[in-house]
Design a protein that fits this description.
813 residues; alpha+beta; 13-stranded mixed sheet; seven-stranded mixed sheet; 22 helices; 46% helix; membrane; transmembrane helix; cell membrane; transmembrane transporter activity; Macrolide_Exporter_MacB
Length: 813
């Protein structure tokens, strides 16, 4: 019986090769997209699932509430870990960590006179033994209980031990010396196996946490509960019977006990381990984070493309039912039951779906390139290494095949044998349920395609708006170089590099200061203004610069003067928004007023015109500038115009040569400010590329289905067209007649999709404090694109049918 079903499926496939090809291609695109997105989702949702009792592991994060804003930070005050360990109940493991970022210089003594130096080492963390109780490692040498008990000890992963010492036996690393940044001299006390599971905990060097208190690092930490460093983080494991809310209540009591400042309201929240890889409000050790919205968007795209492929199959199969009516009538007359006929037709669907699935395996590598912006760097497509793909493909074949084939099988198997044998055409009248279903499904296809078109246009328009909006400062042709940081920070080397860069012919101006006007990170300080009434206190973002910085970036001064160079905190320059926040209607009124911060009274010497120092997702907030030179050792370089297209490249080469003279042991790196600003909108640009491809694929699948229906309709109406031409109908009249029904469906889809797309994209635009407009003509343009594509799809077959010789179509009458 099954063999007979298979033979029938093959014969039907060969009998209708064009329609079978449309079905196969539509389903193959949907299946391959689903396969790629399945791999991405499986990869990202598989992070940190291997830790014992992972649902009880949390990171304590800080949420600071001020009068005008809210600040979220993955770090905690430096005193908190020890206090939690001693005063909070219900916690079985308390594991503080201190993250390092940027490349660390590592020195490995080989002999008394030979030292191997390694630049730019990353994944280095300060931790204690409790860290290894949260994250399970296999120990190759040393002991989990003793390895990090004392200061200046380090545990290495096997790969890092081999890189440092070129050894094959981990025991050989014990007792060896590793020096970090020329100041932290450690002894290796343990070696652990590298984690093979997917995890955000990618550390390779674990320096004992107590080293912080016994080295110059302790001066980088403030003992104040009001100061939070994002690198100082705390992980805990909660007892099985204790809830996260109970721990958070105890943390709130700790805050109230140790923080007496009524103007500072802070919460310590418990972030689940499962949230670490996805929550972009808190960093995850500066590693790649997945975006849940993007993942759900990808899953939606996969589902939509699969549904569109299934719709093509349903439409074309039910439309062609008339051609199989006599076959079904004969089979029923010979004794076939409705159940047997349904199994036959579903098996034919499964056969076509299997061919589509095999084709999708060839398309998948191509789609990997399409979705490259969403694919993790270490995710690849391999049937041999990823057997789950085979299982997923088999499940898709069964689900998609059954979903696509059930209704057509039900329609075909339900034919009355007498009616089918007497009058095949009766079952394809335009008012039948099958016809209305086909029209509804076609409308759904074009509603989807039209919504994608509108969304693509609006996203592209918003991206163009944010990338080209005047931000209030100059950002083109500016290169920024960050000089190496050390605990014994001085400005001698940065100043030397600055003087060398000033001599380059391609450089117009060089300034040494803090961060650029717009950046991804931020630093805030608590500031208070007392006007004799209610004190105004808030956390204010602070940047460091002098007058030359403001001139380089063309920042406009609207009151007072610029900052004078200084080596200590003496005065402030604020933005317009901060002046208004303090209650001054005119910026000039703020000049001379005193701000209290860090136990100092500082005068406001000037007011800057507002500029956008963050992404346009958020409104402009209060900002203050100070001129503390030791806080700003970034070099801001404005290049001369690149007239011949080679000057900037030569400038960068010369900068690297100058860098190597001053910092021979450190790699040269730089970035252009306009590129950094563009990265504010990386997720939107990724979304735009996704919509471009999703729109293209959705239109392609929809037009394939429409093409099949047009060919079927023209073949069914061949004799009608012949009669009309004999009676005097023109070619234009015939084309309009054949096109009108399909255009009505597309116009209906446009009317449905436009308000739905407008509602959805209006919600998306609400995520921007500053956004583009959505004019009415945009929807007209999107509708024109859909109508144009429809006419192109219909045109050839409609014209071919209209110009055909009516004698041939009527010859059999």
């Amino acid at each position: 019986m099954l063999l007979n079903y298979f033979k029938t499926a093959v014969r039907n496939f060969k009998r209708n090769p064009f329609f079978s090809l449309i079905n196969v291609v539509g389903l193959a695109i949907g299946i391959s997209a689903a396969m790629v997105i399945y791999l991405i989702a499986q990869y990202d949702f598989g992070f940190d699932r291997f830790e014992p009792n992972a649902d009880k592991i949390y990171r304590i994060v800080s949420v600071m509430h001020f009068q005008n804003n809210e600040s979220r930070n993955p770090g905690v005050p430096y005193p908190l870990p020890n206090t939690v360990k001693n005063e909070v109940s219900g916690i079985s493991v308390t594991a503080p960590v201190y993250l390092t970022y940027g490349g660390i210089k590592v020195s490995v003594p080989v002999t008394s006179s030979e030292i191997i130096k390694l630049k730019g080492q990353e994944h280095i963390v300060y931790a204690d033994n409790n860290y290894f109780q949260l994250i399970p490692y296999h120990w190759l040498a040393g002991s989990i209980k003793q390895s990090l008990m004392q200061p200046f000890k380090v545990v290495l992963t096997a790969s890092r031990a081999k890189a440092y010492f070129n050894i094959s036996n981990p025991q050989e690393a014990i007792g060896r010396v590793v020096i970090y940044n020329d100041s932290i001299r450690t002894t290796v006390t343990g070696v652990v196996e590298d984690l093979k599971e997917r995890t955000d905990f990618t550390f390779k060097d674990f320096i004992s946490y107590s080293t912080i208190e016994n080295s110059g690092l302790k001066y980088d930490f403030s003992p104040q509960w009001t100061n939070i460093n994002g690198s100082s983080q705390l992980f805990i494991k909660v007892n099985p019977v204790v809830s996260a809310s109970a721990i958070e209540r105890q943390l709130a009591e700790l805050h109230n006990k140790h923080v007496k400042n009524d103007g500072l309201k802070a919460q310590y929240k418990l972030q689940p381990l499962s949230d670490l890889h996805f929550n972009t409000e808190y960093s995850n050790f500066y590693q790649r984070q997945a975006n849940l919205k993007s993942l759900y968007g990808l899953l939606a795209v996969a589902a939509i493309l699969l549904v569109l492929g299934c719709i093509n199959f349903i439409n074309l199969t039910t439309a062609q039912a008339v051609h199989r009516a006599k076959e079904i009538g004969v089979r029923k007359t010979m004794g076939s039951s409705q159940k047997q006929l349904m199994l036959q037709f579903i098996s034919e669907t499964l056969f076509i779906t299997t061919i589509a699935a095999l084709l999708s395996l060839l398309l998948t590598p191509f789609l990997f390139k399409i979705f490259a912006d969403f694919i993790p760097p270490d995710l690849h497509f391999s049937l041999l290494q990823q057997p789950g793909i085979i299982v997923f493909t088999l499940v898709l074949i069964v689900v998609v095949g059954t979903a696509s084939g059930f209704y057509p099988a039900l329609v075909l198997a339900g034919f009355n044998p007498v009616t089918a044998l007497k009058n095949q055409a009766a079952i394809t009248r335009s008012d039948t349920r099958s016809s209305w279903l086909r029209k509804s499904l076609t409308v759904f296809q074009f509603v989807t395609a039209q919504a994608f078109i509108i969304a693509t246009i609006i996203v592209a328009k918003q991206i163009h708006y944010v990338l080209n909006k005047d931000l209030g400062f100059k950002k083109d042709g500016i290169v920024i170089i960050s000089t190496p940081w050390s605990s014994s920070q001085t400005t001698a080397k940065p100043q030397l590099l600055l003087h060398q860069l000033q001599q380059l012919p391609q450089v117009e101006q060089v300034v040494m200061a803090g961060s650029a006007p717009a950046q991804h990170g931020f630093s805030t300080t608590l500031m208070r203004y007392e006007d004799g009434k209610t004190p105004i206190e808030s956390s204010i973002e602070v940047k460091y610069a002098d007058s030359s910085y403001f001139k380089l970036y063309h920042l406009k001064l609207i009151a007072g003067r610029y900052l004078m160079p200084s080596d200590s905190l003496k005065e402030l320059l604020i933005n317009e928004t901060y002046a208004r926040f303090l209650g001054f209607k005119h910026p000039v009124d703020a000049v001379g007023k005193m701000i209290i911060t860090q136990n100092k009274h500082l005068p406001i010497v000037g007011v800057l015109a507002d500029f956008y120092y963050s992404s346009l997702h958020t409104t402009i907030k209060p900002l203050a500038y100070s001129a503390v030179s030791s806080y700003g050792t970034d070099l801001h370089i404005r290049l001369k115009p690149d007239a011949d297209g080679t000057a900037w490249k030569a400038a960068l080469n010369n900068m690297e040569l100058a860098w190597k003279k001053v910092y021979p042991d450190t790699d040269f790196s730089y970035y252009f400010l306009d590129d950094s600003v563009a990265r504010f909108y990386q997720s939107e640009q990724n979304m735009s590329r996704l919509l471009n491809w999703a729109t293209g694929l959705a239109i392609f699948i929809s037009c394939l289905g429409l093409l099949g229906l047009v060919i079927h309709t023209t073949s069914q109406r061949t004799k009608e067209i012949g009669v009309r031409k004999v009676l005097g109908a023109s070619v234009a009249h015939i084309i309009v007649l054949l096109s009108s029904d399909f255009l009505k469906l597309v116009l209906t889809a446009i009317l449905i999709a436009s308000p739905l797309a407008w509602y959805a994209m209006s919600g998306w635009l609400q995520g921007f404090a500053y956004r583009t407009t959505v004019p009415w003509w945009l929807f007209v343009a999107a509708g024109g694109i859909a109508v144009g594509l429809t006419l192109l799809t219909i045109a050839f077959n409609a014209v071919k049918a209209a110009v055909a010789n009516p004698v041939k179509s009527l010859r059999s009458e």
